[in-house]
């Protein structure tokens, strides 16, 4: 279990209220926004209910190119060039045109954080209101905060929006995994109704730890029993649980003066439930818009509108993936197997996975800024 480092009781003193940028949420999306603002000179405050990296939010598998593009290789645990897909009627091995890597959540968050020069405080965001004088006010358990530029990177709850989601009646998938010790050389998924009628099971090894889970596209289907079943089938104990809701539909990326990035904007890809690189990708895009405002190149309203337009321009890709997410579970098991075997021809794998990567390509990240400590040293020299 992660060690709790979050401030409690008397340590939770009120926060100073005004900043240039307020980023709510310090996971993939929020930290990517903060990284993009490094060196801008703005007073950036990042808040999260937990310390940075304290609560792992996923199986932490990502195309390796994203780790290199952001200078986060130090957090890598295990690299895979093949995806193994099991169905009740056979197994396919897809040799991928790019590799996937599992990483350590805390280490990745800390490395990303080192690249920013923002300040961090733990605080629980409780909601927002509009104030004629100070604009948007974000209510937290450590007081009210305001800033001309506010980002909601708080995950699927979209706390700063007026239209929240209530599972299970929302376009959300459900994911649960266990983290036993152990190992394997394969990145594996199971498309098998024994584990889930619509969705998939997975095993993501991470050098000494195996992240075994089940995701259901239908939020009403519980996956605890079948997560245990999959772990037992793999001869691993079901220990160290971690689960969450996963959005599978895009939502407005700008609303009522607030920028939304990552799961809060539904930026997680349908079908695969891959949401880390998209959270990084849209977090970077959001950070670039904020930077344009800070540097006087855009008004806040222009930045909100351009960012929303950028996010919307990906809508058709998300829609297509959602269609496939809905189609595959409806096929009989033998037809699923046939489809997987057909896509398994190397040219089709290269084509489909190449396009898949291009939805949020690592080149978008650009060059990694020097870690903040290095920047301070070079400034002092
Ligand atoms: C079981 C499971 C496995 C997954 N595996 C993968 C995978 O291997 N690869 C992949 O690409 N995607 C995976 N995903 C999806 C991925 O985890 C998400 O898409 C991704 O975490 C989204 O990043 P984010 O920064 O938008 O939000 P989150 O990672 O959810 O971060 C939200 C942050 O906001 C904070 N927060 C929330 N509410 C409040 C509040 N009220 N006040 C203050 N702080 C708050 C949280 O503490 C957290 O730090 C998985 C999801 C699940 C559930």
Q: Quick recap of the structure?
A:
By secondary structure, the chain is an alpha/beta fold. The chain is built from ten helices and 17 strands. The strands form three sheets. An eight-stranded mixed β-sheet has the order 3-5-4-12-13-14-11-15. A six-stranded mixed β-sheet has the order 6-2-1-10-17-16.
How are the elements arranged and paired?
Elements: E1 21-24, H1 28-36, E2 44-48, E3 61-63, H2 64-69, E4 76-87, E5 90-103, H3 105-114, E6 119-122, E7 125-131, E8 135-140, E9 143-146, E10 149-152, E11 172-178, E12 187-190, E13 199-205, E14 210-216, H4 224-233, E15 241-247, E16 254-255, E17 258-260, H5 276-294, H6 300-312, H7 315-327, H8 333-343, H9 346-358, H10 372-380
Parallel strand pairs: 1-2, 1-10, 2-6, 4-12, 10-17
Antiparallel strand pairs: 3-5, 4-5, 7-8, 8-9, 11-14, 11-15, 12-13, 13-14, 16-17
Helix pairs in contact: 1-3, 1-5, 5-6
The chain binds flavin-adenine dinucleotide.
CATH class identity: Alpha Beta
From the 3D structure, determine the CATH topology.
Answer: FAD/NAD(P)-binding domain
Low-confidence stretches: none
CATH architecture heading: 3-Layer(bba) Sandwich
The largest pleated sheet is described as: 8 strands, mixed
> Based on helices, strands and strand pairing, what is the structural class?
alpha/beta
Number of helices: 10
How large is the share of residues in beta strands?
Answer: 25-35%
Order of helices and strands: EHEEHEEHEEEEEEEEEHEEEHHHHHH
| CATH level 4 superfamily | FAD/NAD(P)-binding domain
Helical content stands at 25-40%
